[in-house]
Design brief:
mainly beta; 7-stranded antiparallel beta sheet; elongated; binds fe (iii) ion
């Protein structure tokens, strides 16, 4: 058996949300699908370690926001790398409340589906919630985010525009034997983001060409928000 075959399955990207006793929460995930047309049924698979899963078990409600390729680092950080236990993920979010009272995230969302849970299956590490569609709508027609595109965009280990002008010592870029640019990459232990000095982090104020050790100490991972101490050599 080649277990890598499973990584060839294709997915989209979603934020699945719920509300329980007035508390809203949601998580970034890749498993959501329609499983019946009459009645309209969808299913989401949710890790048992996920706080939102425990809330859905209790509320029996969830919404799926179908994300587009404009997916921002802010949405990834909030819904993918923050726990709803200690943060209000919806505090800064754009959202609406559905017919059931369930929150529906609207940031970077091209369509949404609101559901009532009709069945729950314990399938091992995850719970599968089967939901009957209560309401759904299209927000815009932007290109949709896929799991593959997400990984390529936010966790790419080697940027497509990597310079071809490379020396042979430690991968550093050299000119006449002098190191003119450190190219050692560092990876976030939390989310997998790779800092590439040749690219820098322009959105975070780090110019291309800045070695990792020269980044100011108050810089944080652009994806998950942890500080430099959480990075290791890639
Ligand atoms: Fe990170």
């Amino acid at each position: 058996m080649n277990i890598d075959a499973l990584s060839k399955l294709t997915y989209g990207m979603y934020v699945v949300s719920t509300i329980e006793n007035g508390k809203m929460n949601g998580y970034l995930g890749n498993t959501a699908m329609q499983i019946s047309a009459e009645p309209n049924m969808v299913a989401v698979a949710c890790s048992k370690n996920n706080y939102t899963a425990k809330m859905i078990e209790s509320s029996q409600l969830f919404s799926i926001s179908i994300l587009n390729k404009k997916l921002s680092k802010e949405t990834i950080k909030t819904f993918g790398y923050t726990s709803g236990k200690d943060a209000d993920k919806f505090a800064e979010a754009k959202y609406t409340l559905g017919d059931t009272g369930c929150p529906i995230l609207l940031n970077d969302t091209s369509a949404w589906v609101e559901c009532k849970v009709v069945n729950t299956f314990d399938v091992g590490t995850h719970l599968v919630f089967v939901g009957e569609v209560v309401n759904c709508d299209i927000v815009d027609n932007k290109d949709l985010m896929t799991y593959q595109y997400y990984h390529d965009t936010f966790k790419a280990k080697s940027p497509k525009n990597a310079p071809t002008f490379r020396g042979n010592n430690n991968n550093n870029i050299q000119l006449n034997g002098d190191i003119i640019m450190e190219t050692k990459k560092f990876q976030c232990d939390v989310c997998g983001y790779v800092y590439d000095p040749t690219v820098g982090d322009p959105d975070g104020g780090i110019a291309p060409g800045t070695p990792f050790q020269d980044i100011p100490e108050d810089w944080v991972c652009p994806i998950c928000g942890v500080d430099k101490s959480n990075f290791s050599e890639a």
